[in-house]
Amino acid sequence: MGLRVFALLCVVLSCVPRFLAEEVKVKVEGVTSIAETDDNFVCATLDWWPSTKCEAAHCPWVNAGILRLDLKNEILSNAIKAFNPLRIRVGGSLQDLVVYKVGKVTKCPHFKKREDGLFGYSHGCLPMNRWDELNNFFNETGALVTFSVNALRGRKKSKDDELLWTGDWAPQNARDLMAYTVSKGYKIDSYELGNEICGSGVEARVEAKQYGKDIIVLKELVKELYPNETTQPKVLGPGGFYDEKWFNEFLQTAGPGVVDGLTHHIYNLGAGDDPTLINKLQDPYFLDHIAQTYKDISTTIKTFGPGTGAWVSEGGGAYHSGGDLSSNTFVNGFCALLWHRLMGKRVLRTTHDSSPYLRVYSHCSKTKPGITLLIINMSNSTAFDVSVVNDLNLNPDQEHKSAEDSNKTQQKAREEYHLTPKDGNIQSNVVLLNGIPLVLTQSKDIPAMNPKLVDAEKPINVAPDSIVFATLRGFNAPACA
Ligand SMILES: *[C@@H]1O[C@H](CO)[C@@H](O)[C@H](O)[C@H]1NC(C)=O
Ligand SMILES: *[C@@H]1O[C@H](CO)[C@@H](O)[C@H](O)[C@H]1NC(C)=O
Ligand SMILES: *[C@@H]1O[C@H](CO)[C@@H](O)[C@H](O)[C@H]1NC(C)=O
Ligand SMILES: *[C@@H]1O[C@H](CO)[C@@H](O)[C@H](O)[C@H]1NC(C)=O
Ligand SMILES: CC(=O)N[C@H]1CO[C@H](CO)[C@@H](O)[C@@H]1O
Known about the structure:
Elements: H1 2-20, E1 21-28, E2 35-36, E3 43-46, H2 74-83, E4 87-90, E5 98-101, E6 113-118, E7 124-127, H3 128-141, E8 144-149, E9 156-157, E10 165-166, H4 172-184, E11 190-193, H5 208-225, E12 234-240, H6 244-254, E13 261-265, E14 270-271, H7 277-280, H8 284-287, H9 290-304, E15 309-314, E16 318-319, H10 336-342, E17 343-348, E18 350-351, E19 358-365, E20 371-377, E21 383-390, H11 396-406, H12 408-412, E22 413-421, E23 431-433, E24 436-437, E25 452-455, E26 460-462, E27 466-472
Parallel strand pairs: 1-21, 3-4, 4-8, 5-7, 8-11, 11-12, 12-13, 13-15, 14-16
Antiparallel strand pairs: 1-18, 2-17, 9-10, 17-19, 19-20, 20-27, 21-26, 22-23, 22-25, 22-27, 23-24
The protein binds 2-acetamido-2-deoxy-beta-D-glucopyranose (5 copies).
One 2-acetamido-2-deoxy-beta-D-glucopyranose binds next to loops.
């Protein structure tokens, strides 16, 4: 009797997770890829904001802008090195107020608060000794640099339209900076023209036709200063919010072979101080709205700029410097570093018909063989048991098994990275990897991020409020061969 109760209890206990988890079949189409990302998909922006930039009582930019950032900070440099390489864009709202102290420019003003100034500031300046420091820093950390140039230089504010700026872009100061950069041997991956001056503009705007002519001027400058095509920096623009009519007209004016990357910005979460921000971050129906923008941009590129890449040159989620306790916590993360290390550039179609709170993506693995899935469970109550089926044959399950038999050791070990917030609090800024808090090592390095090995025959158990990367080495995807 005692034994029977014990046995029964065991059975019941071992079933508990099964009762709570919803079983999901995720279908991955491994024959052909549906899209490609860049090798270095993750990007960070270093912004110009001076220390005086505050949002209500909160001042997130103290010694954090390009001109004041402590480049000797080991945490910062180790974080960048961990990507090997990380894309870094130097740009942001105030870039169109920055003069470069080079060539004929001798005055080097500091940003000052100014009521009638763009974004509330007067002109600022980049001295060449700071540019040297920045480039040494980029070189030591191995960053891939996009420099976004001042695109308002030489233009005049229109008298009868509050935001419109007219006249040709004056390229001389940018040209002098570029020539200086070349003379020093600093590597620049790409140059972008302007920040958020497209469409209806944020605090300033330029007409699409005018901007199209100006980007041709930038392209010519780049070609002249970097005559070797294999090492020539790319030209990007317009670095602002998507506006169909403006973007179409801009690409038509620029013509083929000019714009290497059509850059747009995404702040689909709205303002950082919105008290409902935390709900938006957990609402898949809300987050899905941005999908239409991606689709429209693809259409713009297909129609008016084949050969141009679709880039996001700023994607902060929430504008006005993000939302405290949201943007800087687990709930707004997907772990850029693991993405960068695990997700290769080929994207595979991935579908399931379970809850919309379960989001699943798969790419060919960055290191061969196999594929890596990114699974985000936005549900705070439901766990999911995910089995992955290879949509490759009429009878995928059987095929999967036989592939497994051919190399048991490889198949047995599915590599899983489970990210959860500390104490189950999605607004915690401490993230656990496979149950262990991710904290810097004593030498201020990013800790090792090792997977746990899980029997590949078992489903992937995805806890509520968690993010899982899973690498399936034995997954037979011809698209990833
Ligand atoms: C850093 O600079 C040195 C010397 O110019 C150069 O050889 C090296 O390739 C640079 N490294 C990177 C990552 O740009
Ligand atoms: C252009 O750059 C590539 C890569 O650095 C180099 O191999 C090639 O010799 C250069 N071509 C010329 C014409 O300088
Ligand atoms: C889960 O989310 C719902 C809706 O956002 C909320 O009402 C509920 O309190 C949450 N439950 C837990 C256990 O956090
Ligand atoms: C099986 O997997 C192991 C471990 O990944 C690998 O070393 C070996 O080459 C594989 N064998 C075959 C036949 O694929
Ligand atoms: C099926 C499912 O997962 N539903 C829940 C997902 O999570 C949200 C919020 O956390 C709930 O509102 C759903 O009921």
